[in-house]
Amino acid sequence: MHTPTGSTYIQLATFHLNGEEYGVDVMRVREITSMTEITRAANSPPHVSGVINLRGTIVPIISLRNRFGFPELADNSMCCIAVMDFKSVLTGFIIDEISDVVRINKSDILPPPIDTASQPWIEGVIDINRKLVVYLNLGHLV
Predict the structure, then answer these.
(1) Among 29, 73, 122, 136, which has the highest number of CB atoms less than 10 A from its own CB?
(2) Which domain holds residue 89?
(3) What is the CATH number of the domain that holds 16?
(4) Considering the domain boundaries, does residue 116 fall inside one?
């Protein structure tokens, strides 16, 4: 379905993390790739897992579990990496599982229930089929 420019609708790529569902603007997602060996980067913050070589491009990888204060999984073999584009800079985010792509009306995005000064990546909350999805702008983590 064609959506005209300036439309009130956006598409979200939704994913699971620590049993909760999150969504990001699908236009930011370059690709979803399976877990691969991540090379640690010296002196990086704890939430930066390291870097990967994605077809000749070195991409930093951020653990959303670590960044959000969730425990790491003992077995992350089912996890994947969502590679996103922020101003032509690629960054990978480790997520538990990709869920869906949904089309929503921007007016359905409710304001965050918390003060976002300490968590500026939370854009809002959306009720999708009686399930709350936290809408994120992961560009604030880069």
Answers:
(1) 136
(2) 9-141
(3) 2.40.50.180
(4) yes
